[in-house]
Amino acid sequence: MNSLLKLGAMPRRTRPVGQPTRGKTALNRLRQIDVFIALTYADVLSSGSPLIVDVGYGAQAWTALEMRERWLTINPRLRLLGLEIDAERVAVAQPYAQQSLIEFKLGGFNVRDATNGERARMIRAYNVLRQYEETEVPAAILTMANGLEDGGILIEGTSNPTGRMVVSDVYRKVSTSLRHEMLVFGTNFREALEPVDFQTILPKRLIHHMRDDAPLRFFEAWRRGLSIAKGAGRTNLREQWISAGNYLRDQAGYPIDPRERLLRRGYLALRDPLLPLAWLDS
Asked: Phi-psi region for residue 105, left (φ > 0), alpha (ψ -120 to 50) or beta?
């Protein structure tokens, strides 16, 4: 039986599952990942009046509110639920609530308990799991996924404090299973970056495995692609990024999303988790 099914069969919990985050947040910190979702998964959000959930939005409600605002152009009927395990943070966010549209509640990874059983179309958990032990990550991911609609998206990741770098795992709920769709690296091109810079904000499942063969080979191939771009005289950061992404796909054989608009906007979307996710297997 799939792990997701096992978790789904567990009794409802009345208390939030998880631990308080550090709560640090800043305006526009998660802009890059919100834009990526808009570019890549607009079709998921476009129909009906879907519920979107921000798990662990932090000390202020800004990033949750910004997420909904950015996606309103896709669907003006979006409903937002912000979940925090810290009651004081929930109280601070209440002035921004709007009846039937924006709500802030006490809650954790057990999203479905907080929604009283309603399924979410999209769940975002950002800068949350990095403070957990690696062994705790599968249960957290699968517990959140129990709150997704069929076809819904879970995005889990980390940014640096300013938001100039982001790394995300993207999962999709498929019937009663969860599938890893892509590992996404993002930059805003405001500063020159080397592939190694992203290793500090990798998902928790990867961050301690940089000496494993598959991650090591990927980052070395990426470094080589960037070096070739620089050697060819490309000085523009965007052009270097695009060239390195094309090298990874065309020369190194990695399944990089080929859409030019993603590379040009600073997204390298790898359709490979780099390490086996045995906890997703049946």
From this structure: beta
